[in-house]
Structures are given as structure tokens and as C-alpha cells.
């Protein structure tokens, strides 16, 4: 009898184990906040013909440019670039954290004059604040007039805000740059526990900014589990950070959580746009009573594709969203970085969300991957009618595209 009872118990436990295995995803969704995203929602722009990409030139000196931001007053593009081979070993947002296998940790910033088509690598002056050989592994980037209002066109100095994935932890580096020179002079490194898996940065003042974290856990076993079993509704969000001189750094979560916060931009009318690359959406926020640390959700826009970086089209306030219209096969790209844009192609597209049309997405540019493969960011200079697209893993890390007259930039 005892033997029969034990057998019954083991059979029951085995049945429970089998049920749990077969319903593992359902259990995670019910108890741990895992979500299921319908792939059909991310295929709106799939398998379409190329649009507005007929006059693109790929730069072959700068590599692996994850982000770009155009300074409209000077028609200059600023780019955060790097090392494709090194990023396969160490680039925390893409799961790779094998620091011992990476040869160097000194990536680069470039600028590109859209009036003269001149590329310049920017020299870093660490200004005694950090060692000259401090890790520089670039990601998101934004620019802001030095000490002035964001729309001031007379100031010849700007601040460059850059995400840095140092081995010692993530930080936002704030550099000062004088237009016409080739130097970025460090004025502040901002660290805080809330800056832990930083992706994008959007400046709103000389020492204040928003960031997105694209993961909840930055390192270790929990990060592996987060990637393996996600996406999770609670994983990521937008943070507001203030790093005023003489005061402690303060960061505050200002958005609801989302599966994978990614692109981020702020318009002149104080609208904040936050993209979710897993969910294929852009959430529009407004600053409540003009307070940057208090965001109020206005609406969520389904963009119909994996959404990456967001920029603001100068003169309009409309967000430009870089998307992967056919999906992003990241494992394939990481295994073939030297072939990207040569034999391995990742179609890309840029969407414009017109405010006057309630942010309904419209296709502005699409490329089959031959020129703008694996593009993670794109910004436009309306004066020269030029789009600059950046690709974060590719050798030949950005492309400059003259837009046809058929593209409405007004």
C-alpha cells in the first residue's frame, strides 16, 4: 500500500511538471509579467519597394555608428561610432559582455559637414575628469546648446550628451564642443544607479536629460534570464536625471514601464517620444505643467515595426522613427558583421509621425539593406535635404542620402 501511494504521488508530481512545462509561457504571463507580442503587428512595412534611397553614399571610414544627431543651425551631423568586431564581444545592450575578449575599449565620435561633405573624427579631451584611456563604448547621443535655449541659433558652442558603456558601468558623458573645431571636451560624467542599461539620451538642459534603459538587469544571471524568457512588461522605462553643478545626481522614473524602451526624443513644444523596440510602438508624453520630471501620457502610436532611435524633424516637431520593416535578425547580424551590407542585408526604413495627423506613421524612406543595412538611427537636415543614416554593427557605419523633391519635409 505504501509503495502504491508513493507511486501515485510521483505520477501526480510528474503530471504537474509536464503541465507546467507545456504551459510555461502561460504561467509566466499570469504570474511574472511576461507578455506575448503578435508578430503580425510588426509587419506593416514588410516587403515593400525602396523609397527615396536613390542618392545615398556610404562612408567607409567611420564604422558601427549607432546614433546620429543633426545640428540644424550648422548643417552638421554628429555620430557615435565604434568597432563592429569589438561589439560582438562587449556591447551590453546586445547581451555581449565578454570584456576579456575585446581588444580595445576606445570607440569614436565623428561629425559630418553636410554643406561640404567633410567627415572629421573628433578628439576627446577628458579635461582631467577621467583618465585619458577611460573606456569609451558609444551608444545613444544628443546635442544641446551650451548654456542656452535649445532653439538658440547664435551660440557657437554645443553640448554633446553620450551614453557610455564602460566596463565599470554605464554613464552619460557630457562634452562641450565649439562648432568648427575637432575637439570634444568632457565637462561631466553622470553616474547613478538608475543609469544601468542605458540606450538613448535626450537632453533638456545643460545638465538635465532623459534616458531609456533597455533592460532591467544590466549584468549577470538575472540578465540572462531576462533575455531568455522575456519580454517583460515591467522591464524598462524612461528616467529623468538632473546633474546640476554642486548637487547630487538625481534620477526619477517618469514613465510607465514597457518591454524594451529604446529611442527617445524631445520636441520644442515639450513633447517626449519614447519608443519600444519589442512592442513596435512610440508613446507620446507631455510635461505636466511644463515640469520635466512629471510626464503625462498623451497617446501610444503603433508604428508597425521594430522601432529604434527617434529624432525630431527640424522646423516641424514631427518625430522620425527608424524601424526594421522586415524584423531584426540580430543573431545573424552579430555572427556576420563583416558581411553586413555586402552579402547579408537588413532592410531599414524611416517613418515620419505627423503631429497634425495625430501622429499617423507615413513611410519617408525605405532601403533593402544594400546601402542602409541594419540602420538604427536617421536624422534629416532640411536645409540641404539630406538624411544621415547610422548602422551600429556595420563596417561603413553611416550613409548620406540626398532626398528627392518628392519627399515633403515641411
Automatic annotation (TrEMBL):
It comes from the Eukaryota. Pfam families: Arylesterase. Keywords: Disulfide bond, Glycoprotein, Hydrolase. PANTHER family: PARAOXONASE, PARAOXONASE-RELATED. Belongs to the paraoxonase family. This is Paraoxonase.
